[in-house]
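Here is the promised in-class demo. Please do not try to memorize the tokens; focus on the logic of going from shape to residues.
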């Protein structure tokens, strides 16, 4: 069993220095609270589809953002999974990293099922991987990877023996969305639940909160609702909804034995 810190934090689009500092502060606070792995949102530190990435995106692992995450992991003796906008030559990827407590990047994932409206900014990833850790075998996906046709990405991670899937996300709704009339989260429950149940694994998705001020979804807002699904396919944690619903939550995760995860059910 281990303790997963869900860091549903405010991302200020384009204000990457402020967002970076806020993320590092959240990591410290979650570590002080006893979390062993930190899960942060997608597209840090710029915000999803924010055009500032064109100028400021950095390589992994040598860029300032990835090095800051590595330093935070090492100083706080924790693991960190976070979104990271990555520059590779003349291409930019919507990526995520998993960093161990020694500050080493042990897994990098480039988002595969990016929304069509983001293809003009982000290149498409083309591979999946899992990593064995003292917490169990962990896979990483990013946001819309979860609802690729047939849930092929998350199911492939399950077939690769993942016992836990961590997913940095940026869940957004129109500015006039009414959560009372249309409660948010069904899309993720419908896609996380069957995969978690069929492969007997845990899935955790953490979204940021705050307005989207640039890009094709300018005017929308990210609203949190971060969630954890257990190996029975049940939602055991769903954090608050709202543009200002910044929240840290600690959740206990008990991975199933890998043999069962690979065989399903």
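The designed amino acids, position by position:
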């Amino acid at each position: 069993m281990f303790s997963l810190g869900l860091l549903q934090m405010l991302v200020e689009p384009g204000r990457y220095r402020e967002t970076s500092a806020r993320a590092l502060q959240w990591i410290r606070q979650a570590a002080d609270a006893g979390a062993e792995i930190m899960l942060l949102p997608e597209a840090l530190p710029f915000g999803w589809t924010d055009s500032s990435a064109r100028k400021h995106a950095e390589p992994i692992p040598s860029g300032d953002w990835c090095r800051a995450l590595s330093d935070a992991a090492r100083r706080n003796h924790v693991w960190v999974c976070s979104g990271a906008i990555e520059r590779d030559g003349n291409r930019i990827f919507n990526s995520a990293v998993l960093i161990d407590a020694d500050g080493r990047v042990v897994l990098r994932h480039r988002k595969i099922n990016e929304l069509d409206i983001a293809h003009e900014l982000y290149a498409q990833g083309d591979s999946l991987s899992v990593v064995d850790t003292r917490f169990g075998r962990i896979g990483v996906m990013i946001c819309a990877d979860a609802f690729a046709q047939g849930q092929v990405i998350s199911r492939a991670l399950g077939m690769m023996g993942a016992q836990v899937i961590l997913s940095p996300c940026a869940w957004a709704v129109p500015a006039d969305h009414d959560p009372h009339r249309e409660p948010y989260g069904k899309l993720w429950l419908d896609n996380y639940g069957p995969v978690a149940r069929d492969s007997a694994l845990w899935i955790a998705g953490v979204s940021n909160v705050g307005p989207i001020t640039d890009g094709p979804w300018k005017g929308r807002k990210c609203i949190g609702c971060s969630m954890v699904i257990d190996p029975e396919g049940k939602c055991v944690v769903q954090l608050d909804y709202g543009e200002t619903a910044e929240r840290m939550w600690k959740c206990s995760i008990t991975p199933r034995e890998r043999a069962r995860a690979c065989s399903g059910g």
